[in-house]
């Protein structure tokens, strides 16, 4: 069945209205990316000021890692928290009494997450340039591919979290904040994957984000674009997204059969 752009817009407009009328929500969008950028930016500045050129490059790698990882974090939080907004307001049952289909809800939440991500990450990128003279856009047009792969990873992680919330109820809400943060060490955000113990490297290489950051370091350090890393990242995202969609569809169907869509969160 075809998705309706009007129904997707209806859900999107609901969430836009929430932010338009709530300045604390708007501040929260920008607060965490900017805070992370400032902490790591001052750390990078300290490291760079102590020694010579190699550590100046290390400082740039830290800032680039922080800003790119925020793309994945904000994309994941955008979907997961927007879904939780429906639970907290006891609105999930009302949403699905309407003609809105699950695929349309997911599409709407993904668009919301894109807007949330841009609203949070772009100010942090601008401040990184003003405070530390670090320009993320020096990575070139490949930055679009980095953003795309990290956004898609955020979405499938969020769908997995939403599926667990549908299965286990409000007790699983904390996973919306915990899961992607827990994947940070495996994603090799601030160091090459070779630093990790050999036993867990296969787990790291199974994540699209690891290949994005390996590609980012290759550009910054060696001025070389590794298309193989981009290919691996895209293929892994397709596989993980397909698995997340199947899991979400099954858990949504099970929640509807159990009547959990009306009682979840209580």
Characterise the protein shown here.
The model has no long low-confidence stretch (mean pLDDT about 85). The two termini are about 30 Å apart. The chain has one domain. Helix 6 runs antiparallel to helix 9. By secondary structure, the chain is mostly helical. It contains eleven helices and no strands.
Q: What percentage of amino acids are in beta strands?
A: under 5%
**Given the C-alpha coordinates, what overall shape results?**
globular
Unreliable runs: none
- The whole-angstrom Rg is 19 Å
The main sheet comes to: none
Distance between the termini: 32 Å
Secondary-structure-based class equals mainly alpha
Arithmetic mean of pLDDT:
86
Name the helix and strand elements from N-terminus to C-terminus, one letter apiece: HHHHHHHHHHH
Name the helicity range. over 70%
Task: Supply the number of structural domains.
Answer: 1
The overall strand count is: 0
